């Protein structure tokens, strides 16, 4: 953090200390949503929310004197903001992938982040800043797709994504949800263009769907719990999932002996954080985002959850370093989703994918 940033935080603490009586007197006028120094932040439910509550919130509140209200969401983020009054959004800052970023941009739901106000922005990895979404929102973390499998049941050991269509492959489960992540896996298998670029040309869709149909899929799972149930019951032995969430489940499960493998060339997603329009807290939100991408906070976050972080100076646990690409050079082997490039034909391919799922 810059010296001026530290002076700003010290000044805020001094103001809060000297104005405590006044703040208390005014608290009843503010309403149940919290005081003027309360920031409402939406993040993914589950492990991310837990990390926010146990790590991000106490560190932020201690450093700034502000209060942080953490809201968990898995879906409906854009509709919630869109349907709210323009000057009273449901949260001040929200997480989102490239699809949420794109859809929110269509309705001007985000205040473009002013990177000049972020003292840590020069430490963000170039590889994460090259996407259109980064013009509006700050890339904070990222995850990659991996194999998760029942070590006690599988008869083959997956390593590359091509292994999923090999003669040895069997008993696979894939997500029934979003078409793009599975077609990106197919693009890595096809390998005719680098970093799964095939998905960004509509003319390649038939070939990619053909590859998906070659996978020996015995089921499609609906959500994480369904995935673990299928692996536990032997309905499937191997699944396509997320590295960090797979490790978290492996660490907490006493029923499944879960293996997690990240192929050397894989696909992934970026978690962007947006300043929501109309909250009246744009500067406070940007101060929070600057805190969120500091090397100290990112290291603390990475220690609790095996995600990749956007700050180049982040320190990682050994288990993360062993499998997750963490440097700019290593990220050259990860194809990240870029929904803006498939938006024009996403609805069409989503319907086709839904039909494929239903037919299986």
From TrEMBL:
Amino acid composition bias (Polar residues), ranges on this chain: 312-329
Disordered: region residues: 312-331
UniProt keyword list: Signal
InterPro entries xrefs: SBP (IPR006059), TAT_signal (IPR006311)
PROSITE patterns tied to this protein: PROKAR_LIPOPROTEIN, TAT
Superkingdom field: Archaea
Protein name: Spermidine/putrescine transport system substrate-binding protein
Annotated organism of origin: Halorientalis regularis
């Amino acid at each position: 953090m810059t010296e001026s940033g530290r002076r700003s935080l010290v000044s805020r603490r001094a103001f809060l200390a000297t104005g405590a009586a006044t703040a208390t007197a005014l608290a009843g006028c503010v309403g149940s949503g919290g005081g003027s120094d309360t920031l409402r932040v939406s993040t993914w439910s589950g492990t991310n929310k837990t990390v926010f509550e146990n790590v991000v919130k106490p560190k932020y509140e201690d450093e700034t004197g502000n209060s942080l209200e953490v809201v968990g969401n898995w879906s409906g983020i854009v509709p919630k903001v869109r349907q709210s009054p323009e000057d009273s959004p449901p949260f001040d800052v929200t997480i989102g992938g490239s699809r949420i970023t794109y859809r929110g941009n269509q309705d001007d739901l985000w205040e473009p982040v002013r990177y000049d106000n972020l003292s840590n922005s020069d430490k963000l990895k170039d590889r994460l800043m090259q996407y259109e979404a980064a013009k509006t929102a700050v890339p904070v973390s990222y995850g990659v797709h991996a194999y998760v499998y029942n070590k006690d049941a599988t008869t083959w050991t997956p390593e590359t994504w091509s292994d999923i269509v090999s003669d040895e492959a069997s008993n696979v489960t894939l997500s029934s949800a979003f078409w793009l992540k599975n077609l990106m896996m197919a693009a890595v298998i096809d390998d005719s263009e680098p970093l799964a670029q095939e998905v960004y040309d509509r003319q390649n869709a038939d070939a990619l769907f053909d590859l998906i149909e070659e996978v020996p899929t015995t089921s499609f799972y609906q959500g994480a719990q369904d995935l673990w149930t299928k692996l536990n019951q032997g309905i499937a032995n191997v699944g396509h999932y997320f590295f960090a969430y797979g490790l978290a489940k492996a660490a907490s499960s006493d029923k499944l002996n879960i293996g997690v493998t990240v192929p050397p060339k894989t696909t992934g997603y970026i978690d962007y954080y947006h300043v929501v329009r109309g909250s009246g807290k744009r500067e406070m939100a940007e101060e929070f985002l600057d805190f969120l991408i500091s090397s100290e906070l990112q290291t603390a976050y990475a220690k609790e959850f095996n995600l990749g972080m956007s700050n180049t100076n982040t320190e990682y646990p050994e288990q993360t370093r062993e499998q997750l690409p963490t440097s700019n050079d290593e990220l050259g082997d990860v194809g990240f989703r870029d929904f803006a490039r498939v938006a024009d034909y996403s609805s069409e391919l989503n319907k086709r994918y839904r039909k494929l799922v239903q037919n299986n």
